[in-house]
Amino acid sequence: MTETTQIPLKSKDFYRTIFNKYDRNKDGLISLNELIELIESREYEEDIPQYCVRKILKLHDYNEDQQLNFEEFHEMINNPDLQYVFGHYINRYINWIIPRRQHPSRTVTDGLYEEEYSCYPPAVGMIILSLIQVIIFCVDEATEHDSTRSATGPAAIVFIYEPSKRREVWRYITYMFVHIGIFHLLINLLVQVLLGIPLEMVHKWWRVLLVYSAGVLAGSLGTSIVDPTVKLAGASGGVYALVTAHIASIIMNWNEMSYPIAQLLLFLLVAISDIGTAIYNRYVLDINEHIGYAAHFAGALAGLLVGINVLRNLSVTRTERVIWWVSMVTFSVLMGVCVVWNLAWKSYFPREV
């Protein structure tokens, strides 16, 4: 989860430029207030209290004049024990202050997160998964016409989640390969590719596939408790996990991302409006659209919690570490409750066949 930031080796002239920038009164010394300003320029004000900054100053103030001359400043910046504090700042200084000819198209709106987009390794996870879902759909449709509308094809019979066949534990995951009708399939394919590939380009395909699978599993377990008689088909639990995985990525990379508030509001609006509409239609308007809202909600929650745990965090802060632990414990407890409920309270579910 945590990635160590390495300070690049540079000449003293390079560090002299940074020193001069924060020597506001140009007296050749970095005072305590100037050092605090330097550290807070990396948004550390909530993570490093002033007494810690004073301790950093004291450790490197060899002549004990409560200020740092350039030699003391240079040694402090290159102290390996303080790379967590200064390493990311120095790297950003290199990337932003010093022009780089190889990236003439950079704009001021680009963030550190946006720089991480890469096609290596290829973002193939969602594409391969989508191809498998298409192949299984075609097999069922070719075996018996319109079998995909009633989930009676050979693959659907084996893969669909059925409450009365909970002993066949693979069904808690494999129902994501079964779709009811071509429209259901196309919508899920479109959304998971559009949402999954951008995530894979930053976080790599195996992390995104792990989040997706967690959403699928949480969707079936959540549905088994909220709607114990409902069958499940489709990948909506995984798709909603991708939606909230974007939210998790925004939360954990807030300072490194361009326009995080706008992005967060957009994904929240998508998730809340769709799930809210399904619940309203089911319980207020009494419209049965065969939409597994419980799978949507559980998948979305799993995507958020697992996304916080497994997706890349470009610069870890103390607050983010707390969020990481809270999400891990919450997900583990919820999944444990669901598993124990399924194993121990058999009378709650339809009789197994």
Quick gist of this model?
This protein is mainly α and 353 residues long. The protein is built from 15 helices and two strands.
Description:
With 353 residues, the chain is mainly alpha-helical. The protein has 15 helices and 2 strands. It has a two-stranded antiparallel sheet. Helix 14 crosses helix 15. The radius of gyration is 26 Å and the shape is elongated. The N terminus is likely disordered.
Helical fraction equals 55-70%
Give the CA-CA distance, first to last residue. Answer: 43 Å
The number of E-state strands comes to: 2
Element-by-element helix/strand order: HEHHEHHHHHHHHHHHH
Largest sheet: 2 strands, antiparallel
User: Helices and strands: which structural class?
Assistant: mainly alpha
Beta-strand percentage range = under 5%
**What is the spatial order of strands in the main beta sheet?**
1-2
Q: Supply Rg.
A: 26 Å
* Overall outline: elongated
Uncertain residue ranges: 1-9, 42-48, 87-110
User: Which whole number gives the mean pLDDT?
Assistant: 79
Number of helices: 15
Active site: 236 (nucleophile), 296
Main location: membrane
Organism: Phaedon cochleariae
Domain EF-hand: 10-45
